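The following block was generated as part of the benchmark described in Methods. Ligand: manganese (II) ion.
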Amino acid sequence: MVSEERQWDRLMAMARIGAIPGNGVNRACLTEFDRKARRLLIEWATAIDSTVTVDAAANLWLRYEGSDPQAAPVVTGSHMDTQPNGGRFDGIYGVIAGLEAITALHDQGVVPRRSIEVVAWTNEEGGRFAPGCMGSMAWSGFRRIEAFSDVTDPEGVRFADALAAHLAEEADLPRRPLGSKPHAYVEAHIEQGPRLEAEGLDIGVVTGIQGSRWFTVTLTGETAHAGTTPLALRRDAVQDMVRAIGALNALMHDPRDVLRFTVGRIAVEPNTSNSVADKASFTVDFRHPDKNVLLSRGDAVAGVVQAAVRDAGVAVQETFHALPVEFSPLVIEAVERAATDQGFSRMRLPSGAFHDAQFVVPVCPTGMIFVPCRKGISHNPAEYSEPSQLAAGTRVLTQTLVELANG
Ligand code: GLV
Ligand code: MN
Ligand code: MN
């Protein structure tokens, strides 16, 4: 039986690893906190005799053996890293829900035909090393893991070095090859939006994920004295950043409020009050459910920035490009059956957030289960779902996994 209490206790134990004020969590990928959380997960998994392995992207796998070990497994899971100012449920819920599902099956002696694997993907958030979803992109073959080697975190640490150091710490874990061919994948997650709560529903049956593109714009001017340099002699990177962001706001204007456009990180050098900035960089996070809009407006970003700036040199780098995906009827219908069987109310809805599931779609039938979260708040310490709401999602997940694993 899925235990609401055990699941909640485990989520709260995880929330203490990297806790920040206001009930938040800052557990960046490939840090000591990440390693500590993974060790705790491994401890719980080995207590139910599940096999633990790690791949070259540091994705962590827990396997509950089915009666036909040769059959392609059913995979569930999510991520354990958080945003710098993250909450207690984004990502970790899907991992703990997967563990709870196999723990419940273990305790009841239920052994489906296919094995069930719970995966904790590396660096879904992209908060420390951009972009997100590196682990799932590398596993699915969408990108080689080496493609991310030179990405640096804000302290200048290279991703390749952080990954190597991390894998050295997990050298006691058996390695598995990167990539596999599951029978199906289903990921549980908090909704991170307001719809389920507003409609008073228990379960979101996710139909797909909108597309995302990330860019980093770097503007190079010239530093100068703030008190003496006339405007005509300045090449002020900050003023050009303001022009560029204004022009991008116009490009991304959408009266229907479907398009999502965010400038979430800026950096200025030398970052001092009384010097004109010679360097300003900012990120663009742009999302849309329609591939054509995603492609046309995304492709216009560099030109719009170039036309808007007055004095600075412009470099625009695209760091993430994920087209919209649709989930498989096999998984969608299994989730719906499980919700109905257990008397939970539900609706179909698309995901505005990206998830590792996006990169699993080309590999095997894929779907997701959402549970409501308070006011739709996420990427915020105030993120909250009730223990009973989280348990409902896990009950639906468990039944879905068993159905798929017997198929
Ligand atoms: C995932 O964290 C996202 O930003 O959608
Ligand atoms: Mn997430
Ligand atoms: Mn997130």
